[in-house]
Batch of 3 targets.
Target 1
Amino acid sequence: MMSKCAGQISLTQQRLCNYPTVCFLLGISLAETTSGWTYGHSETTMNWTMARQWCQTSFTDMVVIQSQEENDYLVSQLPNRKKSPYYWIGITKTHKNETWTWIGNNSTWIGEHSWAPNEPNNNHSTEFCVEIYVNSYANRGKWNDEKCANSKYAVCYHAQCNSASCERGRCQETINSTTCLCEPGFKGDRCETAEQCPVLNQTDFRSGRMNCSHPTGLHSYNSTCEFRCDEGYKLIGEDQIRCNHSGQWTASIPVCTAVECPPLPQPENGYLSCSGGNQVFNTTCQFKCQLGHLMIGLSTVTCGVSGVWSGPRPIFLVIFYYFTKFFHFFPHFIPGTFAVRFSNLLFIRKLVSSLSINYEF
C-alpha cells in the first residue's frame, strides 16, 4: 500500500514530500484558504489503469486539465526527471476513431499546443492513453499518446469542492481557488442568499386581501403574492405576481376598483341625487318629485355587488293632467272616494295601466 504524505505548507508555492511514495503540489492561496484543488504524484510507475485506481484511493482522481494555464502550472510543480520523465494524465479513448475525452467530466479540451510535434500518432495502433513530458527539454509540458499498459508515474488531484461548498449553486474549482456559480436568484460567496424584491405591504393593496408565500426568504426569489378583491370590487391587473431572479416583481401591485352600475340619468319632472358622486358599489341614489307631480316607484335605489341597481327607477306623473283623464273616463267617481283610493299605490298602478302609460322598472 502506498502511503500519502501530509504536512503543513508554507506561504510560498512549493512541493511537499514527506514520504518517498507521493508528493502534494500546493499554491500560495491554498495555504491560506485551503480552497482549490491540489495535485499529487506517485514516486513509482504503473500502467494507466493502476495509476487511476491509485489516484482514486489516495486523492480524488487522475488529473484533469482544462486550460493551458492549468497545464503550465501543473508542469511547473512536478519534479524534473532525467530518466523516464513521463506522467499519466486523465485523457483517454477506447478506439482509434474516437475523440480524446477527459475522465470525470467528459470534456474534449486539448488546447492548441498541447501535443508534442507529430503527436498523437497512434504509432502502435492501440495508443489510447496520454502521458505528459516533465523534463528540461523542448517538449516539456507536451503530450504524447501511449499504450495504456506501459508504466508511468501517476499525477492526481484532490478536489476541495463538495456537496456543502455551495448552498444553491455549483462549485467550480480552479488552481488555488474555488468559486460558487450560483443558480439564478441566488448570490453570496456560497450562494446562500436569495435575491430580494421590494417589500409589499397590505396597506399598499386596498379593498382586498393579499396572501404571500416565501419559500426562500421574506419577499425573496420565488416569493409569490396572490390578490383578491373584497365583495363589490373588481381587480385591475395581475391576480398573482412573483419575485424573479433579478430581484424584481413580475408585475405591479394590482388595484381593486368598485363595481359600477349603469348610470342613472336625471329624470323628467324629478330630481336625482347620489351619495359620493359616482354611481358605483354601495352608492345610494334618491329620487324626488318636482312640484305638481306624482312619483310612482322606489324613491331610493342602491348599487349592488354585481353592478345592478336594487330596483327600477321611478316615473313621475303630472297630477292635474291625470286627474282630468280619470274623471273623463270615470265621471261618476265621487271626489271623496277618489281621495281615499288614490292614496293606495296599487290603485295608482291600476290607474296608470288603464290610461296606457308606460314606465320602467
Target 2
Amino acid sequence: MTMTGKNTGADLKSGSYFFLLAALMLILATIGILHFFSAEDQKHLLAEGGFFENLTVLGYGVCLLLIWSCWPWQKVRERWYFSALIILFALRELDYDKSHFTLGLLKARQYTGDMVGFPEKIISIMLLVLLVALLISILVNETRAFISGLIAAKPSELAVLSSLVLIVVTKSVDGLGRKLADFNITISKSVEQTATVVEEIGELGIPIMFAVAIILSADFYFRKRSVL
C-alpha cells in the first residue's frame, strides 16, 4: 500500500465515523426538537399511520434500494437474509403481524388459545418457523464477523450495534405507563409523552442506522479493491 493509499484509507475511515455520528445526532436532535411542539402536534405526527410511521416504512424501502444498488449482486444473493429481514421490519411497522392475525403473529395466545382457527394457527406456525430460520441464518453467518468488526471498531458494525440498541430501547418504552402500572408505579402524562416520542423516533432511527451500515459496508467492500 502506498502512502497515498494509507492517507486515503484514513480519510475514508474518518469520514465513515463522521457519517455514523451525524446519523446518531440527527436521531437525537429530532427527539429534542419534537419537545418544542405542542402535545396536539406531537400526537398528530406520532400517530399510527402518521408522518413518522410512514417515514419509517419509507426508510426500510430506502434500505432495500441501498442493498440492491450499493452491494455487488453476489453479495446481495449470499446475504439474502438481510433483504428479507428489512422487509419483515417494514411489515412489522405496518402492523401486519397484528392486523392479519386474530391475536397477533408474535403473541403466545395465537398458538395456545382456542380463539384462533386451526388453518390460521398452522399458517402462523409456518411463518414463525420461517422467521426463526431467518434469524438463525443471520446468527450463524454473521455473528463472528459482527463481533470482530465491533472489536476493530468498524463504523458499519457500530451502526448495526446502534440499531440493536434502538430496538431494545423502543421495545422497553413502548407502553411504558401500562408496564409500570403493573408494578403500581404511576408516571406523569409528560413522561409518558416523552416515552412515546423516544419510541417513535427511535423506530425511525432503526432504518436510518441500517442504511448507514449498508452504505459503510459497501464503502469497506470497495475500499479493499481501490486502496490496497
Target 3
Amino acid sequence: MQKRMSVVVLRFQTYLLFLFIEGYALVYNAEYSFARFSETAPGNLLPKFLFQLGADVEGGTSESKIGGGRGNKNTFQPDDTCPDSIFEGAMEDLRGPQLPHLSQDLWDCTRQPNVSFPSIVLENKYLKVDIIPRFGGRVWSIYDKVRHRHLVYANPSHQPANIAVLGSWTSGGVEWNWSPGIIGHSVFSESPVYVAKLQGENAVRIYEYDRRNQSAWSVDLLLHNDALWFRPRIRTSQPQKKIPGYWWTCVAISVTPATRIFTNKKSVAQTSVEPIRAAPWPVFSSGDANTTFSGYPQGSRFTDNSYIGAIPSGDFFFIQDNASSSFLASVSDANDSFVPFHVQNGGNGTKFFTWGSGSGSGRFMQDFLGGVSGTNDTSRAYDYAELQTGRAATQFQTFQVQGEEAWIEVLGAMNVDDNSSLFGIYDTAVSTIANGINHFLLKQGDFATVELQRLAETEPLEILATGMPWGAVDRANFSGLSFVVSDEYLDEARPWLELFANGSFSDLSLSRAPLSYQIDPLWLERLRNSTQDSWLRDLHIAVALTESGDVNEPKRLFLRSFHTRPSVVAARCLAILQTSTHDAWEWYQRAWTVAFDDREEPARDRLIRNLATEIAYFLQGIHDYPNLNTFIKALPPHLNDLDAILTSKIMLSLVHDDPTTAIAMLNDTSPLGCFPTIASERWTLMQWWFTAVEKQANATSPVERHRARKSHPVPRNIGCPYNNYSAAGCTYW
C-alpha cells in the first residue's frame, strides 16, 4: 500500500486533489512518531493466578500472596440510592483474571525521543485519522483539517502506567475495550491487533480474538465526510451459549479547568464516595441523591460539576432514560465554539472520567502519562478527560452476549455560533448541542448506518497489520476475520500447534521454558489426553488447575515436573502454593538457582527479571530484611532498574538507618527515579521520604518531625498515589 500511495502522490497530484475535493478518502500505511517513548517489556513468564490478585480494580499492587485457592472475591455492591439498572448484571467479582494472558507488569521510563511505529491512516479532505495497530488498534489521533483542531487528545508520549487488567496502559486517543466480563482496560491495550482494509477507500476493520472465552471483537471504521463512524461487533464461538460481556469505547479529549462536559442525561451514579451512589447531574453530583442544599444559584460554576475545574477526580456513570441514543460533548473554554461529540446508538453506558485538574494526584497522573512528570514542564498540555460509552450502565456490570452484539457510534464536531449559550444554564446548553447533533445525524446518519451494515458482511480486501496468533491456534472461525501465526509469535504458539496436530510436544518445545499458557477446559482435555509423559505436560496441566482453585493436584504435578526437568516456572509455582513463608522462600531459592544455572535457555534474561521482581516483593512483604539484603547484594547490576530492586534498596537503607542513601534514591531525577510501575503504592514512597527526612534531621518530637516534612516536601518525581486526590503530603501542584 505504501508503494501505491507514493505513485499516486508523485504522478497523479491533480487526481489526488480531485479525490480530496470530492470528499473521497484514502487508506494507507504510514508511521506515527512519539515525542517521548517508554517501552512495555514482553509479558511476565511467571503465570499470575487469580488468588494472587488484590482488591484494587486499577492501580496495581506489589503484594505477594501464597497458598493458592480462589482468593477473596471483590463484589460490586452499589448504594440503594441507585436505580435497578445499576444492579442489573452486577459483577460478583471485580478482580481481573489475567490468565491465559501474560501480565504486562514491567516497563521503563526512558522517554526516548522521536520513536516511530507503523500506523494506518484514514484520510479525506476533512479529517486525518491515525490508527496504531501495535497498541490495541487505538485511534491515536483524529485531526480536523478544516478547523485545524484535534477531535481527541493525541498524546505526544507513550508512557505506560499501572492501570490496565494486565498492568501496562497508556492514555490518549480512542481505545477499544472488550473482555469476557472483566473490568478494566482490556488485555489488548498494549498488544498488537489486526487491521484490514475493507471495500472502498474509506474503511478499515480492527479486530482480535479473545481466547479466554473464544470470542472475537471487531470495529469497522468508516471515514465519511467530517466524521468517523464505527460499528463495534462482538461474536461468540458458540452462538447458543450466553457469556458475560464488557465493552467500553474510551475517547480521550484535551481539557482545561474551564472545559465543560455535556450529556443528555439528568442523573449519575458516581464514585466520589463509596459505595457508588446516584446523584443529580450536573449540580451537586458529588453529593447524595437527596441533597437539598441550595445556597448557590442553579448553574453556578462553583457547584456545577460539568466544569472540569469543579471536580477533584471521579467516574461519572450517567443513568439512562428513555432516549434511544446517548451523547457526550465538550467545549474547552468560554472563548471557544468548537464542540467535539461522541454518540452511541442504543446501549446503557455513558461515562465521563477525569483525573481532576486541581488535585496533586490528578495533575501528577496526567503529567506522568504525558511523559513529563518530574520535569519543569508545567504547561498542563497533557490534561485530558475521557468520554466513554458502553453496553452496561457502569463498568462494574456486564451485559449478556449470545451469538452476536453490534451497534453504531460516531465521533464528530460542530461549531456553535453563539458559544455564550454553552456557558449559561446547563439544560439550555445541552439543548443547543442536541439540536446540532440531530441535524448532523439527519445529514449523515442514514448513509453511514447502511454503509456500515453493508461493510459488516464483506470480506477484507487486504490485511494491513497482523495481531496475536491465538485465533489461528484455536482455529477460530468468524466471517470477515482471518488469523495467522506470524513469525513474531511463532515460539509462543508452537507448543499448542504441536499438541493440536500431534497430541504431544516436540523436542524443541521440551527444551525451552514455556512462553504461553492455556486454561480453557478444551485445552486441558487435550493435555490430559496426550499420551506423552513430559515435564511440560505436567506443568501446563498444573497451571490450568491452579487457576481453577485446585491446590493439591497442581502441587503434585509441579513437583513431578520439576523432578523430571528442573524449571523456573515449576519451582516458582511451588513457592506460591506453599502455606508457610519459610517453605515458599525455599522454593523461590530453587527457582533462582535454576534461572541462573540454565544458560542455554533463550528466555533466561526475561525469566530472571520476572523472578527477581517477584522475590524482592515477596521478601519485602514478609519483612525478611536479612534475606532481602543478601538477595539484593548478589544481583547483577543490569537488574538495578527494576522498581522492585530500587524499592528494596530504599527500604533496606531505612532499616539500616541510612537516610542519606534513601533520600538520594527517592529524589533521583533520572529514569530510575520515575518508579514507572508503582501506582497506588506511591503512598509508600511518600512515607519513606518523610521517614528519611525526619531521620536525617534527627527529629524526635512531633513539632520537629512536622518541620522536617514541611521543609522537605515530596519530590516531584515521586508525585502522588494513584487516583487519591486527598493524600496528605502530596505536593505535586
